[in-house]
Design a protein that fits this description.
heterodimer, A: 133 residues, alpha+beta, Glutaredoxin, four-stranded mixed sheet, 5 helices, 39% helix, globular, B: 73 residues, three-stranded mixed sheet, 2 helices, 27% strand
């Protein structure tokens, strides 16, 4: 698949899915603490969402960031618009704004604080030190 | 490896009137709260972009993660 085809596929996925999360790993097996936390926050609202794993091909992340002008993963989109990454989603959840924006009723037993990701956070990826100047 | 002070200085130099409070335990993962009048009227995404643009190309590299909270004074 060419880079353009990847970018087109990403645009189409964003256009076709009301709530779509680009993440590292999958909702069941998130590969990064920030992705895990964002998934847990959406799950606390019991809202269905589409998830895309960016890890299988580095070009997915590259083209997504070029498209969204947002350098980091995860990225949550609602009706075609970037809502933000983990920090913004967490902040919006805790202010009660996230449920309203997504158009869902927060469950009565939803915690006030955004849930921490289930299980221990993965350690920082190996190899990052090699990139330090 | 950037220090918390260096990250703070760079944010404050790049965004006029910004005040940044930066924490790091390992000089790879950073957490910053940034207050700036320049954020007024911007969406959260636009506010975060202003800060992340300061570290263009370094996020995910030397700065593995920057947890960010933005505030309008």
């Amino acid at each position: 698949m060419s880079d353009t085809a990847i970018r087109d596929a990403i645009s189409q996925a964003i256009a076709e899915n009301d709530i779509i999360l680009f993440m590292k790993g999958t909702p069941d097996h998130p590969a990064c603490g920030f992705s895990a936390r964002t998934v847990a926050t959406l799950q606390a609202l019991e809202t269905p969402f589409t998830a895309v794993d960016v890890l299988p091909d580095p070009r997915i992340r590259q083209e997504l960031s070029a498209l969204s002008n947002w350098p980091t993963i995860p990225q949550l989109f609602h009706k075609g618009e970037l809502l933000g990454g983990c920090d913004i989603v967490t902040e919006m959840y805790e202010s009660g704004e996230l449920a309203g924006t997504l158009g869902v009723d927060a469950p009565a037993d939803a915690p006030d604080d955004a849930p921490e990701a289930a299980g221990p956070l993965p350690a920082a990826p190996l190899g990052i030190e090699n990139r330090l100047g | 490896m950037p220090s918390a002070e260096e990250v703070k200085t760079r944010i404050e130099a790049a965004i006029p009137g910004a005040e940044a409070d930066v924490q790091t335990a390992d000089e790879v993962h950073f957490s910053a709260t940034v207050r700036a009048g320049a954020f007024d009227g911007l969406s959260r995404v636009q506010q975060h972009r202003l800060v992340m643009d300061v570290f263009d190309g370094e996020l995910g590299g030397a700065i593995h993660a920057l947890a960010l909270k933005t505030e309008v004074p």
